[in-house]
Every structure is written in C-alpha cells, then in structure tokens.
Amino acid sequence: MLYCLFAIVILISVYTIRHYLFTLNRLFGFQRHPYIDVDMADWPPVTVLVAAHNEQKVIAYILAALMKVNYPKEKMLVVPVNDRSTDGTREIIDRFCEEHPGRIRPFHRAGGKEGKAAALKDAMELVETEVILIFDADYIPGSALIRQLVAPFFDPEVGGVMGRVVPLNVGTNLLTRLLDFERSGGYQVDQQARMNLGLVPQHGGTVAGVRLSALREIGGWNDNSLTEDTDLTYRLLLAGWKTVYQNRSECYEEVPETWQARIKQLMRWAKGHNQALADYGVKLLFGKHRATLRERIDGFLLLGVYAMALLTLIGWILALGLFYEGVAPLHGVIALLAITAYGALGNFAAFFEIAAANRLDYTHERICLLPFLVLGFAVSVFSISRACLSQLLAPIAGVAFHWDKTERFRSTP
Amino acid sequence: MNPAFATVLLVLVAGVLFTLPLVPTLIELRLKRDGQPLKVVQEFAGEIRHFSYGFRKYIGNVLEPLQKCVASGSTARGTMPDGDPYLLLGRSDDARLVSAGRNATTCRSVVAAGTDVVFPDGMTFVKEIYAAGKFTGGEKTEFRSVLGEKDIQLGRASTVIRWAHAVGALRAEHDCDLYGRISADREIQLETGCAFQRLNAPRIALGRPNTQEANDAAETAPISPPVGRRLIDEDLDIHPGEIVSANIVTRGKLHVGAGARLLGSVKSHEEMVLEAGVKVEGSLISASTMHIGRDCQIIGPVIAEHGIAIDTGTRIGNVRTPTTISAPTIQIEDGVTVFGSVWARNEGQVVPQK
C-alpha cells in the first residue's frame, strides 16, 4: 500500500513540476508565434468543415460569421456536416446555401455510425483541398481567423493547427466562470508553453486545421475514437507531422451551463483520452518513429492527464488507509516535510497556472473566484474517475461505443 | 472567561478568519464585475492599415472646414471632439505655422493639410498628421503618425513612432527610423540605413532600385507541382543547379547551392543558407536563422524564428502573388525587392551591399 502511494505521489509531483514549468515558461520564456505575421500570401484553397448534430440553436451564427471572414471567397468552401440532425439544423443550412450560392456545400448525413469522427470521415468525400479547417457549430470565428489558421500550413512540417478557444457565455453562472478559468489556463499557458518548448500542442478538433495529405497518410479520421482530436494529434506525431498552436487565433465558443452537461463532456473527454493512452502510449514512449525525446515525454504525460484523476483518488484512499493503519514512513519526518512542501507549492500548481493565465489575459476581478476552483477540481476528479472506472469495466459489462453530444444553451437567432 | 462564551468566540473568530479571504470571491460572484468574455478581436486589428483607416474616420470631423480653408487659402485652429487641438492648413506655405508658438520645435496639434505640403526640418509632431496632397517631411523630424492621400516623402534621419500610410508611394530617405506600421497602396522605398518594423505595399524597394529587376511576365513557370515530402534527420546539402520537386523538412542545417531550383516548400530546424540565384516556388521556413544570397527568387512566405539576412538583387513574392517575410530581426541589403509584407518583430534594417 505504502509503495503504491509513493508511486502515486511521484507521479503527482511530476505533473506538479510540469505545471510550474509551463507557467514559468509563459511568464518569462521565449514566446513562439512564427506564423501569426503572415498576412500576405498566395492563400491556398481551403475547406471549412462545420460539425453539426442538432445544432439549430447555434448553426446560423457560425455560418453567418464564416460568410464574412477575410479570405478569398473563391478559395474557401464551407461544408456544414449535418450529422443525423432531427431538429431544424438542415433547414437553416439549406437557407444559407440559397443565400450564398457556391460558397456552402452541405453534407447531410441521415444514417451511419454516430460520433463526430464518423461524420467527418463521411464528409471527406466533399473535400478536395489540401487545407481543411474544422469548427464545431457553437463557435463564432472572427474575420481574420481563417487566414491565421491557414498560415501555418505554409510550413511543410505542419500537419495540424490549433487555435485558442475563448468562452462567450462566461458570466452565466459559477460553472461557466470556472470553465473560463480552465480554458484560460489550458490555452493561454499549457498549449502556448508546449508550442514554445517544442513539445506536443494538442489538436482540439475545433478552431483547428489539418493537412489533407497528412490525414490520408495516417489513415483518415478514426471513427472508433471518442476524442478524434487527441487521436489525430498522436497519429500525426507518430507519422512525423507537427501540430502547432496559434494562441492569437482566438475564437468564441459556448461552454456548458449545467453541471450535468459538463460532467458528460468531461467523461467523454476522459474516455477518449484514455483510449488514446491505451492505443499510443507505449508506442509513443518506446516505439521507432520521428518524435523527439521531449515530445515522447510530454506526449505521454499529456495522454495521462485524465488517468491521473483516478490515481489521485486512489492516492487519497491509500493515504487515509495508511493513516488509520498507523503507518508513518521514516518516523513520519519525511512524510511531514513532504506534506508541508506539497501543501505550500504542489497543491497550488494548477491555481498558479490559472492565475498566470489571467494575468497574461489582462483580466482583473475574475481572479477573485480562484478559490472556487476547488469545487471544479473535486467535480472533475470524481467524474473522470467514474469515467475511467466505467471504461475499465466496459469489456466486462459489454458497453458499446456511444458518443454524447454536448448540450447547447444559446437561444435560436 | 465563561467557557461557553470562549467557545463561541473561538468559533466566530475562526469563522471570520476563514471567510475573510473569500470576501472578494463572494463579491465578484455576486456582482460579476469581470464576467464579460475576453475581448476576441472579431475585426482584423492585425490589418496593417487598421489605425490609418481609423484616423481617416477621425479626421472626417474636420474635412469640411479644411476644404473651406483650401478654398479661401487660409489657416484655422480648433478642437477635435475628443478635446485635441487641430491646425488646418489651406496653403502649402502655411506649413511654417506648425512651428509657431512657445516651443518652436514641437507641434502639439493634429495637423491637416488640404494641399501639397512641405514641413520644416527638426520638428517633433506629437499628434497625427493628415495630408490631402503630397506630403514632404523635413530632415530629422519626428512624427507620431502620418496619413497621406497621395505620396509621402520622409526626410533624412526622420522618425515615425506609430504608423504612416500613403495612398500613393511612401519614400524614406537615409537613416530613418520607422517604428510600427508603414504602408502604402502603391509602393514603399526605403534608402540604406533605414530601420523598420512592419512594412506593407504591393512593391517594397529596399535601398537603391534594382536595375536588373526581372520582368514578372518572364518568370519561370513551375515545372510540375511538388510531390510528397522528404523528411531528413541530419544536415542537407542541395547541389548547385539541382532541381528538387518535393517539399523538404530537415532537422539539421540546410545549404542550397547556387542556381538550385526548389519547386516545393522547404523547412530547416537549424540554419538555412541559400546561395546566389536560387529559385523557390514555395515557402522558406527556418526554426533558426536564414541567409538568402544574391539574386534569389522566392515566391512563398519566408519565415525564420530568429533572424533573416537577404542579399542584394533578391526578389521575394511577385506582383501577382504578394507574400510575407517574418522574423524577429531582418537585415536586407540595398537592392532587394519585396512584394507584400515585411515584419521584423524586433528590428529590420536596410544595409549597404557588402
């Protein structure tokens, strides 16, 4: 029991160091934005895929925004991927097609496997361009965003591009404010630090792009994955393609407004991530491929972030058990020092990261809500642990592939 | 002390001490003082002409009186809606008025000239300048920003602090320091010794005009589109005159011999050196530094994460396909032509030929 706890503590310490490394890099390190200045070029033709499953509340916003972007009209085709919608999504898309002839080519999918990856896979029959951009239907791209996301593809090493996601409905309730923190830390610090350090920025599957030849080389979309974005990141990495992050390519999204929707979203992400850990973890660390040592280590740690929630929970249980067993390793002195040090520094690594992200974003009063992160942290630990356990038990329980769509809250325009 | 009272007091004090740090949290949760989404720029603020377009709208407030000044050949002073003083010049010889006042070398008004105008040497303009006609600045003059509806000529050793935009051509004489955004709808010409950060124009001539500049129509057409991608883990040397039809990514250094032709895009993780006369149809990307030799032709974007040096006679982009050069530091020799944008995040410089 004691050695298990030690192992968990070491793992937690590794992630703590990682948090600090990323945060300090963002605060004091060299910042890489190599492609953001490309404002003039012979822009390549691009296909913008908009994944939509029952999105009547939001689809009109993104289509309207895409029709206004600053990109040569003759070089951009919007393909709304209407995946088996049963609401008014199809009618809204068709109306936009009539209003903007030649600029939107809808892909209406009536059947087939469920999930975003499966829908995107089917929609590839309409894609003829080397550069593909992907948005979820609840996003609202600004006028410069398409150029900014396309620019990195001038680099022949780039297979995937990821922009920054910014919550639009921040002020709705405590949850949306906590999610604003989470996104801020995740993008402003984590993703950009990975970009700076030459690690593995993660493809997010929205506000993102992928090179068609790279996608074909790795075998297309994996429709067995619950998180096609994580899956894509690792397959690109293993095939020698880089995914790059553009922190200044920002796009509004709608975050979940109810804890129920949030927990569903978290559980899907956790399962998908763990699936990728099982599929690519060992190969990434020890396999023969082109990833550098630092990419291997960071990539593996990134794959393990959701598994850490379950390990943390097990660690708490073990610590309690050992306490009541009366176990005090090394006369309790080391344990006491370790607990004190972790309480002073380790515990606050994630808080420090988010506080730094807010500072980099020039926000002010919202940082006051930082103590509430404990609540979000607790919900995440238990939800993700639940997802991990159900995933571990799935082969026994015989649970089939199921994809949970994130609920939308915006009112229909 | 009564034990019950002491207990209650202890609980109360502990409760207050626990709650006190949470007071700002609870206030923010209730009042939502910072509950708005982050400002994501939906318009393209990165557009180089963003500020000059904004200023044109701003100056619209005085265009009517400016036209009256031009018609009557007079000068007028007043205050803009935001409280800034303005000076309207209706005649070109009025320009000497900008130096009038207690401090003869500093002008603190927004200046709008309705005709061609020539400004005196050695002045400092704290506010923006608008010129409806051709604008000629004196030597060693410091400008905040200039918008010229025709051409702009900046005198030797002048400085632009924020931006300058010419609807026609913009020319800067020797040793000018051009901070911020410098743009022209027709052409920019910078003489040697000029420092810059951001330039954008259909044609940018750096140093003396290149007399041997190739005719766009005569440019060689691509032989065939690039096929596939070559990944190389060590240094790569492309031989002189070699034609390479793939995109290339090398983790080491890249050396391209004189006269080689690359039909695709090229990236090196370390230093990239192109010898004289190399032609690249795609983009050039270096995660380190890049040196482009004499008389090269690059069609796609040129990006280096640390620095770029470009030798004389080289052309980047062309009239039909403008492009971007981007690096923290850019050193361009006399006689280079760029079509599109040059972004030196820290500093760019036009230097004499070696």
Share of residues in helices of chain A: 40-55%
What structural class should be given to the helix and strand makeup of chain A?
A: alpha/beta
Query: Which descriptor suits the 3D outline of chain B?
Result: flat
Oligomer: heterodimer
Q: Number of helical runs of chain B?
A: 4
N-end to C-end Cα span of chain A: 57 Å
Mean pLDDT of chain B: 90
Give the largest chain-chain interface (CB within 8 Å): A-B, 46 and 52 residues
What's the count of strands of chain A?
8
β content of chain B, as a range?
A: 35-45%
Total helix count of chain A?
14
Distance between the termini of chain B: 91 Å
Poorly predicted residue ranges of chain B: none
Query: What is the H-and-E element order of chain A?
Result: HEHEHEHEEHEHEHHEHHHHHH
What are the segments of chain A in which pLDDT stays under 50 over at least 5 consecutive residues? none
Largest sheet of chain A: 8 strands, mixed
On the 0 to 100 scale, the average pLDDT of chain A is: 90
How much beta of chain A, percentage-wise? Answer: 5-15%
- Structural class of the helices, strands and pairings of chain B? mainly beta
Annotation, overall tally of beta strands of chain B: 32
Shape label of chain A? globular
